[in-house]
Amino acid sequence: MKKKLWKSALSAALITTLLAGCGSNSGTATDNGGETTGEGGAKTVKLKMFIAQPRLKESYDKYIAQFVAKEKAEKNIDVQVQLEMPTADTAPQILKTRLASNDAPDVFAVHAINEIPSFYKAGYLEDLSGQPFVDKLLDSVKPSVTTTDGKIVAVPMETLSWGYIYNKKIFKDLSLTPPTTLTEMKAVIAKLKENNIAPFLLSYKEAWIPQLFLPLAVGALSNTTNKDFVEKMNKDEGSFSDMKSMFEVIDLVNQNGTDKAMELGGDDGSAAFASGKAAMWVQGPWFAESILKANADMDFGVAPLPINDDPNATMINLSTSTSLVVSKNSANKEVALDFVNYVLDDKDSNAFYEELKFNPVAKNHSFTTYPWVEDAMTYVKEGKSYLDPSIPQAVKDESGKALQSYYAGQLSQDGVIAALDKAWKSFNKVNK
């Protein structure tokens, strides 16, 4: 469904309060940082959470309710949870404002690759190394939530294997296979157009979506022809002019996509893709739940996006994104730590992760992975993958806005490059 801009802004203030037991403040004896003591010695704790995944609100609400019941039963703590779920576009700025004003949520979501390094350096993150969930983490996942000095500071939620998603039925009906080069992609596009099928779904209303081109291009090129790109950018010695070839695939997608791109966001895009409006979408499987909700019979796959005509550069992006951390300054640290451990609870987390349609991240996860995960892992097993490049979040945010302007014809390729170079240099200046 299409949403007005003011509704997007209001979604940043979405608050869900879950009460356990009576949750009453009657008979309160003390008040300490959101914690009160009531009759019978029961504590009432107000726990603030910040997770920018509003499309998954129902699942989080249910799991949080289970946690609230568990805390009451096992510790006689009445937990009142305020869950704030802004959109991905508005979340970074809201969170930065909270942190800068000493109003940090007790538990909040960060992007493991992009945000943990700078947030940890700034002193915002609690060291979770000694928590019970740590020993449950898969060895392949643990490094993504570990700092350079060996501290584990987050519980991973989403691990991702992505490139673009494609409609398997359309590909099968036309005897198409995922292309391994840009030339092959052009042939696939031609075949789709011959059959009056839009090759790509475009949904650029939310800036984080066109931003996806950045990690895909940088990841592919920095693992083949530009191996020192990130290192040079971190030293103020590089430029995105070295990555100018990324516009080949960006232009190819934009020129062969659906119209009204600036009117569609992630939710609308999921519904459009589920209805067969286009054969491919430069997007990750994190929208699987939304796509299948719109069309339970949808058969889609994941494949690596060709960047150029070198098949060695056509690789799957492997990443840990949404991860939950505990604020270093939380006044309710005991309960916050209980929650992040409950996220990987031996009894309940299997059903939670499966419902979210996330990949297994822990040794106690035994649910069956999804077909699109198996698609991506086929490439990974063949050595055709790379770890998500470490691009500052500020640069990714800038790329989203710049690529929206580029699509609209308001910014040239050189203008995009200049904006990205400036954003990275500004990041370096602040984070030296």
Mind explaining what this structure looks like?
This protein is an alpha/beta fold and 432 residues long. It folds into two domains: 5-158 and 321-344, Periplasmic binding protein-like II (D-Maltodextrin-Binding Protein, domain 2), CATH 3.40.190.10; 161-318 and 373-430, D-Maltodextrin-Binding Protein, domain 2. It is 39% helix and 14% strand. It contains 16 helices and 15 strands. The protein has helices at residues 5-11, 57-75, 91-100, 112-121, 168-173, 182-194, 213-222, 229-234, 246-255, 266-274, 288-294, 333-342, 349-356, 371-381, 393-407, 413-430, and strands at residues 15-18, 31-32, 35-37, 43-50, 77-84, 107-111, 155-156, 159-162, 164-167, 200-201, 280-281, 300-303, 316-320, 322-326, 385-387. The strands form three sheets. Strands 1, 2, 3, 4, 5, 6, 7 and 14 form an eight-stranded mixed β-sheet that branches. The chain starts with a helix and ends with a helix. Residues 1-32 have low confidence and may be disordered. This is Raffinose/stachyose/melibiose transport system substrate-binding protein. Residues 1-20 form the signal peptide. It comes from Paenibacillus algorifonticola. Keywords: Signal.
